[in-house]
Amino acid sequence: MPGPAFTTYGLTHIALAVKNVQQSVDFYEKVFGACVMHSTPKWAQVQTPGANDIIVFEENKELAGKNNCGIMHFGFRLTNANEIKKVTDVLSTVNAPIVEQGEFVPGEPFVYFKDPDGYTVEVWYESDELKIES
């Protein structure tokens, strides 16, 4: 079996449907010491100290807390931004539908695609600098 076409840090984040974004941020800040990286009124991205994990809270009252359908997507973090092209090449060869592709900020590309079961999977690159909103 051939090795992987690209290298990731593995599964590093989860996006959860929540009823109230700020309530979830407050809870995870209190319980885990999570720090806000990016946020809008409808979503927030937090990271726990000393880890490479990311938790995304996406406001969706209908799905919040529901077993089997409250997860919005899961992602794999690239070790090199330039490998995003390898990702899209592989997706093309396996006919995986691309949902969205672009850059969160310059130099930090992403691609969302559907797996065979219809789950949305993300592969993205993010610099190693901790980005905390003040």
Automatic annotation (TrEMBL):
Domain VOC: 10-126
Pfam families according to UniProt: Glyoxalase (PF00903)
SUPFAM superfamilies per the UniProt record, alphabetical: Glyoxalase/Bleomycin resistance protein/Dihydroxybiphenyl dioxygenase
Organism expressing this protein natively: Pinibacter soli
Source species, domain of life: Bacteria
Metal-binding among keywords: yes
InterPro entries: Fosfomycin_Res_Enzymes (IPR051332), Glyas_Bleomycin-R_OHBP_Dase (IPR029068), Glyas_Fos-R_dOase_dom (IPR004360), VOC_core (IPR037523)
Transmembrane segments: none
UniProt keyword annotation of Metal-binding present: yes
Name of the protein described by the UniProt record: VOC family protein
Alphabetical keyword list: Metal-binding
